[in-house]
Structure to design on (417 residues):
């Protein structure tokens, strides 16, 4: 058997040689006007030119985009490739909005639909959420947001039923990531036709934690925590309706840690919700996620420091958990919560999934059980390599994490009693 590749958190700066050379050469050509422009006007005009459309919708709030761009320009220290990727990504998000508005007008029945009931996985990063989402998505009646749909929920060239154009773009994106960061897939597998985090739908409103996970933007991150996220969730519902109009199902299986901070909004806008909260020892999942952030940020900037990453994201995760715990404390019993311990998910995966259905009051048929077992065998642990990480890589220790997450540790302990 071929030895699995080992990806170490402390090796995140070991980029392919071509990547470093391209950045070095590209930067030298900036005096010739080759630097990718990151201004609101330039990006919005590019999106309009790309799509041939002009209407971003009456509910488009420009301030989040403006704050994000200012923070990127002044704080993120992007290298040339990072600058280019960021420009293309934002143009795509604006283009999604333009195309979505076109379809909402052309097909008013899209927004007249009822949103499907939602199973929403809200555990912290690196707590088994991807594994669990893929398992639940193997139920033929469940509807997940596939990776190519998350990137482009609105049809391109009228590929409503096939997704042909959008799948092509997603395949190219996956290949590009493999070339730029071969080790990233051992941390977080990305497959163009597999379920992906729906936080990418919130990106269309420029109100999500994606940007602060991929680059150093403290001003934008601080602004985001105080901003009203209602418009982002309201628009996300529209995009989910657009997706279910293209490919129907019975219920949604959604997943992103971002929702931990906004459980009241999820309940308000999604309606019929079952929250599935995955839990893992914080001294395991936190350093794993910090490693993932380090590998993500080096794709955009050469100025990535793991201690800075730790200071930002340990506090941020503690804040997210505190908001979620506050919501549970005030819950009047009208919301379904299913808690899934990581060790239970790994030890007896199928039983963990069956518990989720029991909490919904739905039986698991023999056929459905077979689907879960088949999916579980297709995605073994360490499929793309072995991810190794140490707290010491980030200049912190367990007491540092506990300072921000003591209440959550106490809550975890109560679940095991």
């Amino acid at each position: 058997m071929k030895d699995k590749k080992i990806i170490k958190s402390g090796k995140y700066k070991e980029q392919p040689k071509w990547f470093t050379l391209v950045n070095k050469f590209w930067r030298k050509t900036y005096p010739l006007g080759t630097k990718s422009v990151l201004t609101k006007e330039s990006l919005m005009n590019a999106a309009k030119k790309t799509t041939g459309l002009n209407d971003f919708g009456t509910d488009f709030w420009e301030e989040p985009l403006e704050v994000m761009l200012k923070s990127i320009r002044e704080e993120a220290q992007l290298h040339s490739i990072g600058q280019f990727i960021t420009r293309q990504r934002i143009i795509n998000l604006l283009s999604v909005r333009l195309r979505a508005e076109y379809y909402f007008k052309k097909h008013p029945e899209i927004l007249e639909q009822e949103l499907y009931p939602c199973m929403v996985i809200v555990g912290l990063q690196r707590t088994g959420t991807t594994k669990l989402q893929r398992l639940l998505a193997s139920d033929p009646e469940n509807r997940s947001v596939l990776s190519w749909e998350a990137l482009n929920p609105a049809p391109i060239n009228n590929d409503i039923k096939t997704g042909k154009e959008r799948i092509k773009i997603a395949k190219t994106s996956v290949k590009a990531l493999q070339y730029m960061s071969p080790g990233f897939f051992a941390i977080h597998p990305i497959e163009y036709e597999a379920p992906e985090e729906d936080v990418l739908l919130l990106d269309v409103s420029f109100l999500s934690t994606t940007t602060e996970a991929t680059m150093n933007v403290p001003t934008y991150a601080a602004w985001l925590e105080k901003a009203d996220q209602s418009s982002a969730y309201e628009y996300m519902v529209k995009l989910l309706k657009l997706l279910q109009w293209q490919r129907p199902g019975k219920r949604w299986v959604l997943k992103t840690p971002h929702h931990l901070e906004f459980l009241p909004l999820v309940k308000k806008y999604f309606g019929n919700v079952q929250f599935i909260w995955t839990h893992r020892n914080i001294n395991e999942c936190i350093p794993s996620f910090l490693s993932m952030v380090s590998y993500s940020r080096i794709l955009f900037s050469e100025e990535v420091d793991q201690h800075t990453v730790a200071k930002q994201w340990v506090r941020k995760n503690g804040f997210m958990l505190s908001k979620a715990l506050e919501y549970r404390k005030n819950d009047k019993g009208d919301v379904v919560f299913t808690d899934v311990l990581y060790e239970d998910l790994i030890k007896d995966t199928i039983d963990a999934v069956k518990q989720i259905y029991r909490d919904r009051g739905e039986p698991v048929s023999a056929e459905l059980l077979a689907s879960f077992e088949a999916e579980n065998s297709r995605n073994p642990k360490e499929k793309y390599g072995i991810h190794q990480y140490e707290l010491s890589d980030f200049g912190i220790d367990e007491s540092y994490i506990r300072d921000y997450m003591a209440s959550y540790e106490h809550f975890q302990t109560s679940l095991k009693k």
Notes: The chain has one domain: 6-415.
